[in-house]
Design brief:
This protein is mainly α. It is about 75% helix and about 0% strand. It is built from five helices and no strands. The protein has helices at about 10-15, 25-50, 55-80, 80-85, 85-115. The longest helix has 27 residues, at about 85-115. The two termini are about 25 Å apart. The model has no long low-confidence stretch (mean pLDDT about 90).
Amino acid sequence: MHAFRHVALQILSAQKSGFAVSDALRDRILYGDVVGMVLAVLAIFAIRTRARYAVPLVWLFVAATILDLVDSMVGGVREGLLGQASGVTWLILTFYVPLLWTSLGLIVWQLLRRRLEPLD
């Protein structure tokens, strides 16, 4: 789910098509999602290879994602973005973002529940 956060790049074409998002918020959304995507892919690779740094990397991913999603949510509410979203932007805000929050909660739950289990 988080490895495909590059869908946030769609905000560039949405902004050109009239989606009234400020450049500052657009950039925060883009950079946050790209960093989250890179961390997610690195974490998947680290877990698959059973690297010692896998769990700390997943926690770093969780922290970065929480910061990004909260910042984007607050900025989106301030600018009233959900009310003006349409098309693909509406789909992302209505379905994909809640899935990101849900999967993030499940990741944290698994990290806490399995904190004493080795990766081996």
